[in-house]
Write a structure and sequence with these properties.
This protein has 170 residues and is mostly helical. 68% of the residues lie in helices and 0% in strands.
């Protein structure tokens, strides 16, 4: 049992809603990745699943490589969205009506768009996203994924510090 006041204060600041929701979420993500791997032999990565979903609406060759396996990937992607919705409904009330604030942000739309473009380009340059590299790649001790996740984290921390130092707000 941890009783050091500094450790407890730091934990309270890092996890103001408690640590259990993060631990349960992490276990569920790991379980989902395990089920996908055991069922298909493919490491689960959200960016690849989203990209395979784009094969329904785009004729570009890079999206067409997923045509044979896109149906189950689409179901998985839909499950991510529905899972978040069910969680919001159970723990935050009616997500579409009473708790509209749970589905909104103070961040300006142009910043969301620019950030999304950077994330999209980054997932292509990094050959995957944090879910694929961080959960499956690190879990399988892939040196490429470990280096990728370390890079993702360092750049994210540096960017957050720079934005905070510049006084940028939503």
């Amino acid at each position: 049992m941890v009783s050091d006041p500094l450790v407890l204060q730091t934990a309270a600041e890092l996890f103001p809603n408690g640590i259990s929701r993060y631990a349960i979420g992490g276990l569920l993500v790991g379980l989902g990745a395990t089920i996908i791997y055991l069922g298909t032999g493919i490491s689960a990565g959200a960016s690849t699943f989203l990209e395979s979903t784009l094969s329904y609406v785009s004729g570009q060759s890079r999206f067409q490589q997923y045509v044979r396996s896109r149906d189950w990937r689409f179901v998985f992607t839909l499950g991510i969205i529905l899972g978040a919705s069910v969680y919001a409904f159970i723990f935050q009330g009616e997500p579409w009506a009473l708790q509209a604030s749970a589905w909104t942000t103070d961040v300006q739309p142009w910043r969301l768009l620019v950030g999304g473009v950077f994330v999209g380009v980054g997932t292509r340059v990094g050959k995957g996203c944090t879910s694929g590299h961080g959960v499956c790649g690190v879990g399988s001790a892939s040196k490429t994924s470990i280096a990728g996740v370390a890079t993702f984290l360092l750049v994210a921390i540096a960017t957050a510090q720079l934005v905070a130092a510049l006084g940028v707000s939503p």
